[in-house]
């Protein structure tokens, strides 16, 4: 075997057994790099006689090409092997079952908030949120509360100590300030629901100082009272998961809507149970109305161009009604046994396709 053939056999064997890309790169430099064995031989071509060069040129070039090709082929093999190893080690086995009994329960307030958001999301509403600590403008003034409105009194509102300029921040008394924040920052059409915590100085079986609301707001050029009624009637049917719900809208007063109404749903007592949707008794579940022109003006919207409707409902109250929970104060007592009884499976996310509650 000639010396060159020996070199070729040796190199090909080493390339073939290279274990990884860096070993292969070492071989490439050793053979074809600037000072590599083949490169060194190529340099000798210049010193040969023309006859010799004619013979050795093709021999050496052939060697160079074959070694180069062998390295390239091996490189691809190694890359493919590395990729396969990575795919195998990073594989997620989606057939693995989840733990049979997840620990912990979803609180009824979280569950019902998710249910309400799921229903309005399916109707095309977005979710908006705002701060729990508000100023007078967003919580009252922009919502058209007159300066001497009783809701501004210490009696209802948790105020902070006055600041140096005399203004007082407060814990928001409702989610309505987020209407203002949204109308000031977003161009109509607006369709949002606003879930959040709210605060009032009040405590008994059906009132806690911190409670939860979901606010709704629709602003466009043609939204009217019929849309408001249709939206809320569709909501209660889906929420209570019953075919027919008797509802009525009673005239009411809110500074930020005109006309304003409260929505009641029919119910009756059957033995110890309260049954919704039918019967001769009425229960108030939310306040609503057409957004007052002053509120639109306070948010920089032209009331001759835009109009809309809004509503606000108590999440805790709806949770008590839907799931038969008797005392609101228990919601916030952090009693694990209570949560075990009234809580929801964390794996069952409320959605309209598989059912809200299971
Ligand atoms: N903010 C009211 C409250 O807390 C509820 C409410 C009533 C909200 C009517 C509205 C509305 O958006 O239109 O009592």
Automatic annotation (TrEMBL):
It is found in: Cytoplasm. PROSITE patterns: AA_TRNA_LIGASE_II. Binds 2 magnesium ions per tetramer. GO terms for molecular function: phenylalanine-tRNA ligase activity. Its EC number is 6.1.1.20. It catalyses: tRNA(Phe) + L-phenylalanine + ATP = L-phenylalanyl-tRNA(Phe) + AMP + diphosphate + H(+). Its main location: cytoplasm. It comes from the Bacteria. Mg(2+) binds at residue 258. It is an enzyme of class 6 (ligase). Residues 110-346 form the Aminoacyl-transfer RNA synthetases class-II family profile domain. Its cofactor is Mg(2+). Keywords: Aminoacyl-tRNA synthetase, ATP-binding, Cytoplasm, Ligase, Magnesium, Metal-binding, Nucleotide-binding, Protein biosynthesis. NCBIfam families: pheS (TIGR00468). Belongs to the class-II aminoacyl-tRNA synthetase family. Phe-tRNA synthetase alpha subunit type 1 subfamily. Tetramer of two alpha and two beta subunits. This is Phenylalanine--tRNA ligase alpha subunit. The gene is pheS.
């Amino acid at each position: 075997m000639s010396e060159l053939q020996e070199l070729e056999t040796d190199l090909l064997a080493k390339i073939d057994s290279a274990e990884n890309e860096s070993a292969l790169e070492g071989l490439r430099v050793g053979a074809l790099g600037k000072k590599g064995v083949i490169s060194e031989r190529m340099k000798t071509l210049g010193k040969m006689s023309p006859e010799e060069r004619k013979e050795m040129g093709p021999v050496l070039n052939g060697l160079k090409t074959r070694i180069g090709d062998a390295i390239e082929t091996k490189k691809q093999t190694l890359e493919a092997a590395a990729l396969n190893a990575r795919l195998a080690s990073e594989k997620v086995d989606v057939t693995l079952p989840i733990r049979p009994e997840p620990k912990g329960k979803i609180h009824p307030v979280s569950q019902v908030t998710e249910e309400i958001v799921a229903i309005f999301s399916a109707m095309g509403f977005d979710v908006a949120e705002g701060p729990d600590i508000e100023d007078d403008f967003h919580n009252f003034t922009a919502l058209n509360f007159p300066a001497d409105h009783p809701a501004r009194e210490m009696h209802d509102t948790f105020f902070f100590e006055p600041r140096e300029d005399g203004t007082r921040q407060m814990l928001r008394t409702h989610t309505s300030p987020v209407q203002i924040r949204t109308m000031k920052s977003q161009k109509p059409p607006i369709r949002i629901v606003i879930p959040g915590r709210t605060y009032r100085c009040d405590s008994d079986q059906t009132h806690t100082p911190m409670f939860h609301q979901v606010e709704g707001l629709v602003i466009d050029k043609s939204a009217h009272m019929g849309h408001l009624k249709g939206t809320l009637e569709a909501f209660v049917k889906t929420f209570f998961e019953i075919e027919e719900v008797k509802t009525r809208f009673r005239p009411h007063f809110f500074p930020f809507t005109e006309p304003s109404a409260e929505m009641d749903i029919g119910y009756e007592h059957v033995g110890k149970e309260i049954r919704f949707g039918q019967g001769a008794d009425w229960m108030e579940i939310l306040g609503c109305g057409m957004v007052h022109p002053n509120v639109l003006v306070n948010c920089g919207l032209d009331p001759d161009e835009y109009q809309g409707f809004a509503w606000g409902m108590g999440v805790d109250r709806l949770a008590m009604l839907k799931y038969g929970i008797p005392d609101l104060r228990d919601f916030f007592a952090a009693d694990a046994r209570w949560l075990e009884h009234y809580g929801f499976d964390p794996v069952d996310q409320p959605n309209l396709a598989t059912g809200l509650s299971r």
